[in-house]
Structures are given as structure tokens and as C-alpha cells.
Protein: Phosphatidylserine decarboxylase proenzyme
Amino acid sequence: MAGELLDNKGRGDATWQWPAIHPEGRKFGLITLAISLVFLLVFDWELVGWPMLALTGGVFAFFRDPERVVPLDDRCIVSPADGIVSHICEMDPPAELLGDDGSGVIGLPPGKVTRISIFMSVFDVHINRAPVGGTIRRLVYIPGKFMNADLDKASDENERQHLLIERGDGFALGLTQIAGLVARRIVPFVKPGDMIAAGQRIGLIRFGSRVDVYLPAGTDPKVLVGQRTVAGETVLAEIGQQQLIEGIAQ
Structure:
């Protein structure tokens, strides 16, 4: 199905398949597999070997990289992460995404915007995808703490990485990858100057984390707190659309 064009009129063919394992995770899975086999086949320590074998399955599952069907609509801002919408609030974007950083690249304008925070547990897919297509104008890594990523203050205190994406029409969008309680490394797949498409893989955060998206002024979310999102597929917002949406948990 990769690369196939699908639409809402029935065009395309959808088939289930096992998700691929991202290369970044294969080495970790092979290491735990080798250790489990040593305990089982060499030392005959089943009490340790079988749990290690189960851990191997968990490691491979964590780094799974399924295909996604990405909406091809310039108005859509798609989710960069699988997970749960944990916070929606009005706030100023991070200083690293604002104004001129000295390189001549103009960042986001000052003023409060809507921030959507998506929390990823260790059971979610951790490959992050671009909310919109464009050029990577900034990639700013900031070392920090490793508090629970679900806490609001994690946006300011945890290890994080800011990205600024600018489209050809001048529209710019900022997002932040935040390491969590278990996560210990943010792995980027892109660098400043790279041109990317909406839904393209841009990086991953190992073992539980969060992603913040900063919507442009005059744009309201189309998701609710508590809602699950799918990276590259769930539409977080449509640029320029403002509408109160209510829901109920049931």
C-alpha cells in the first residue's frame, strides 16, 4: 500500500500487514534476543531467559513503524504522534521558536496561541511525523530533566527538541518533542534545510514521551482532551477555522 493514492470515494486497496521495525530499534531488539537465548540455551536459566524473551518482543513492538494514510490537504494540520491529547491550552510559544534567531530565519510571531499536547505511553508507536509539509527552518535541542512527560511543566524543564516548519507560502508551524520519565534520547531524522511532506517521519523519542504542537493564531483544535490520535492521520486542526467542539467520554 505504500505510496498508493487513496480517497474518500473508494479508490485504493487497504490490506493489513505486519508493521515494519524501524532500524533505530533493531539493534536493541537483537541485543535483548541474544541475551535471552544465552540464558535459555547456554545457562538453562528459564527464570531469567523467558522474561528476557518477552522483553525482546516488547522492544520490537515499541519500535514498530506502521504505514499511515496521510490527508493531502494544505488546510490540515495532522497529528505528529500516536497517543492521548493530554492538554489543550492558550500560551506563548517557546522562545526558541519566536522571532529571528540570528540566522535570518523568521520564527513564529509573538502572542498567545493554542498548544496541543499529545502524551505517548510506552505502548504507543513512537515514530513522530510532520504535521505539515515544508522546509525545516529550525531544529533546537535543549538538555533537561526527565520528569513525567504528562506534567504540564515538562514543556519547560524536560529534555526537548523544538522544530520550526515553514511552507512555501510563508506559513510556519512549531512543535516540540519532549523526553519523559523513561525516555532518554530524542532521535531526529531531519536537519535544518530539509524539505519534508506532511506525515513524513521526522524522528522518534525512546520509551515514553510527549509532543506539543503550536497552532497558528485564529485556528482552533478539532480534537478534544482525552482523545486518541494517530500520527500522520488524525487531523488536529484546519488552518483558519475556529469552532467550539464538545464531546463526552463514554
Summary: Helices lie at 23-42, 46-62, 154-157. The first helix runs from residue 23 to 42.
